[in-house]
Fold this sequence. Notes:
The protein folds into two domains: 3-62 and 143-325, BirA Bifunctional Protein, domain 2, CATH 3.30.930.10; 349-442, Anticodon-binding domain (Rossmann fold). Helices cover 31% and strands 28% of the residues. The chain contains 13 helices and 23 strands. The site of glycyl-adenosine-5'-phosphate has 18 residues, from strand 10, strand 13, strand 16 and helix 9.
Amino acid sequence: MDTFEKIGSLAKRRGFIYPGSEIYGGLSGTWDYGPLGVELKRNIKEEFWKTMVRNRDDVVGLDAAIFMNPKVWEASGHLEAFSDPLVECKKCHHRFREDNLGEKKECPDCGGKEFTEPKQFNLMVEASLGVIEGEKQKVYLRGEITQGVHVNFKQVLDSTRIKIPFGIAQIGKAFRNEITPGDLTFRSREFEQMELQFYVKPEEKEGKKWFEYWKNERMEWYLGLGMKKSNLKFREHEPEKRAHYAKAAFDIEYKVSDGSAGLTPSSWKEMEGIHHRGDWDVGRHSKFSGKDLSYFDEESKERFIPWVIETSGGVDRAALFFLMDAYHEEKLEKETRIVLKLHPKLAPYKVAVFPLLANKENLVKKAKEIHGELKKKWMVAWDERGNIGKRYRAQDEAGTPYCITVDFDTLDNNSVTVRDRDSMKQERVAVKELSVYLEKKLA
Ligand code: GAP
C-alpha cells in the first residue's frame, strides 16, 4: 500500500474522511469529513485564525459570499485563463491533465501512448440563479476565495481604522472542475482554502520585505504545529510558468514519503502558495467596476493601487499532510501499532476516559464523573468496549494524546492511570490534579 492508500484506509476506518455520497456510488472529487475529520479540520482553521487574525494588529477577517457577480471573474481573469491543459487518450478516450501524465506520457487507465493535442479546459464550475426558467442568471461557484476579499478592500478600509500595510484573511470553500481529481483529498473539486491578502505600498523594497516575511511565517506555522522539517520545502515557480502579473511565487511543498497513487510523478506536493500579485487584483477590480479603489496614504500624501502579497493554503491538503506526517507504524513485541502522533492542538480528542470494566457500576460512575468534568475544557472521548489494549489502539489511531483509566485503586485513593500516546508510558495521577496535569501536558 502506498502512503495515500494507508491514510485513506485509516481515515475511513476511524471516521476522518469518507468518499462523498458513497452509498450512491460516490461523486468524483468530493469528500465528507467524519466525526474525527471535522474536529481536525476545525482545529487547523482555528489555529490559522488565531495566528493570522486574532494574535495580530495588522490583519482582519472576512467571510464573503460564494456566489459573486460574474463580472468579478471577468476582472480576475478566471473566465479567460483559469484553465488546465486537457488531453484525451486515443485508445480508451479517458481524459487527463497533460501535466499529470509524467514524462513517459502513458495512459494510467489503459497504458495507451497516443493522446489528442492539449486543449485549454476552464476549471470554473457554473451554476444558475433565479426563479424563472429561461431568465436564470449564469453564475459561478468561486474558483478561489481570493476575489471576495479584493472586492471588499475599500469597504474594509472605510469601516475600520486599519492602514496599509495590512491584511484581510479568509477561510472558505472553493470549487474547481478538476480534470483529474485524485490522491484522496489532494485534488478535489470542492475544497477549502485559508488565505491572507496583505496590502502593501507599491514599492519594490516593501513588496520584497513582506513577501519574505510571509513566506517564513507560513513555513513556521506548519513547523509549529509539528510537521517535520525534513518533509517541508519551498519551491520557486519558474518565471515563465508564473501568472503574467505575479512578481514572485513560491510553494510550500510536502514530501510524500513513498510515492503517490500515480497521478503526479513527483513525491513533493504543493500544500500552500505564497504569491506576490503586484497591483493586479485591486487594479483590475477598479477598472472593471468603474469604482476608484485606490488608497490614499495620509503620511506620504500619495494615492496608489496597493500591491498584494498572498498566502493561500488548502485546508484539506493541510489536513491530509498533517495526517501523513503524524502517521507511524511501530513494531511492538506481538503486533504493529498504528499511531497518529498529531500535535495536541490538532488532535480531534485531547483525552479519552475509560472505566477498567464496563460492567462495574461504581467504576463506570466514577469514570463518567471524570469524563464530564474534563469535557468542560476539552474534547474528551469515552470508550468502554473491549479490553484496555483495544481501546488504546483505537485512541492511538485517532491521535488522542492521553488516555485515562479508572480502576479499583481509583475508588480507594482517588487517582487514575494516565497513558501517554507517544511513549506509551503510564503514570498515576491524583484526580484532583488531573486538570492541571493535562493542561501542562497539552500546552
Ligand atoms: N488564490 C490563489 C490560489 O487559489 P492556488 O495555488 O490555485 O492559488 C491555493 O490554490 C491552494 O489551494 C493550493 O496550494 C492547495 O493547497 C489548495 N488547492 C488548490 N486546488 C485544490 C484542489 N483541487 N483540491 C484541494 N486543494 C486545492
